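Need residues for this backbone.
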């Protein structure tokens, strides 16, 4: 079994590639829920939805989030009714949030809700939230404490962040299947996701990081930093704030206790040469995923790197 840890837009691209090269029953995707938001009374799980839409080919190619070819008529109407409108939900996307919210209100867990939504969307891979309990990523900024979506969407991540916290994480538990998947995995992959706000919340759930440290399977991280900068979003700035620096060395630092193989971009070949050591393999390839071929090739390359690592360790 192959497991992949991911956030939303960046990570989903690699998850789509993995779906092309791994049998669905052998693929488990563990998803960040620190960005979840209560919006218009509905429970929205943006990263889970990106993964579900990505795996069922519903994901909007132009936006990278939400449903392809969606309309925003409800959003327009909400605006006219004086409701908050800075967070965009499409009309078709709303059906997912209505369904999830109804299931949660009926007493189902988030993991059960996610499994049922995945099944309705024809997805055969296993998609697990990091936890069934509510964990909220909070950012202490120059404008006060904000939720992740307030920072990322409303403020367009243009304000300085002093600290990132994962509210509720200390008393949360991994969702059913998370620890078991880590223990049973043949390869563990971290998709190119923001190490601070997409992977940080997952690793903050008590038990997950320890299970990764103990795991027999090789752990490969695909760098979200290319040429010293984030491909999209605030990963570089947030990593600098954490004291990790915006570079592939910074990515290695973020995962230093669990990392076996770092998959970096060819643009970072010089930095990669400087970092290679007995205990860390750093491999370079094209990591920018524009087409489905790019996604599949990067997935194949990462799996191959894990297989080589496994045979070297055997
Ligand atoms: P979010 O929930 O929308 O923030 O999504 P993720 O955390 O999964 O992804 C965002 C991260 O992915 C950013 O740090 C980007 O630098 C990185 N990213 C986005 N697209 C690509 C890509 O094609 N290749 C690589 N290597 N990184 C990417």
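Answer:
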């Amino acid at each position: 079994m192959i497991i992949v840890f991911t956030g939303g837009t960046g990570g989903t691209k690699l998850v789509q590639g993995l779906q092309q090269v791994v049998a669905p029953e052998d693929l488990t995707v563990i998803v960040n829920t620190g960005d979840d938001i209560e919006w218009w009374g509905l429970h929205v799980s943006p990263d889970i939805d990106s993964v579900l839409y990505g795996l069922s080919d519903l994901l909007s190619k132009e936006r990278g989030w939400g449903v392809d070819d969606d309309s925003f008529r409800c959003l327009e109407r909400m605006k006219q009714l004086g409701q908050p409108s800075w967070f965009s939900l499409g009309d078709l996307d709303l059906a997912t949030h209505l369904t999830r919210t109804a299931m949660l209100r009926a007493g189902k867990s988030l993991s059960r809700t996610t499994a049922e939504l995945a099944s309705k969307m024809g997805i055969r891979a296993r998609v697990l939230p990091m936890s069934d309990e509510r964990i909220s990523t909070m950012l202490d900024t120059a404008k006060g404490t904000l939720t992740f979506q307030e920072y990322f969407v409303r403020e367009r991540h243009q304000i300085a962040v002093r600290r990132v916290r994962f509210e509720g994480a200390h008393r949360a538990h991994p969702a059913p299947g998370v620890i078991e998947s880590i223990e049973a995995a043949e390869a563990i992959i971290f998709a190119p996701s923001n190490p601070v706000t997409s992977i940080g919340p997952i690793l903050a759930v008590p038990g997950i990081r320890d299970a990764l440290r103990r795991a027999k399977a090789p752990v490969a991280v695909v760098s979200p930093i290319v040429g010293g900068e984030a491909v999209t979003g605030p990963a570089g700035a947030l990593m600098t704030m954490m004291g990790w620096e915006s570079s592939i060395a910074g990515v290695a630092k973020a995962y230093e206790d669990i990392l076996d193989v770092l998959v970096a971009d060819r643009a970072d070949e010089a930095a990669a040469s400087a970092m290679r050591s007995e205990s860390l393999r750093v491999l370079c390839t094209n990591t920018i995923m524009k087409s489905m071929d790019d996604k599949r090739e990067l997935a194949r390359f990462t799996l191959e790197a894990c297989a080589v690592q496994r045979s070297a360790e055997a």
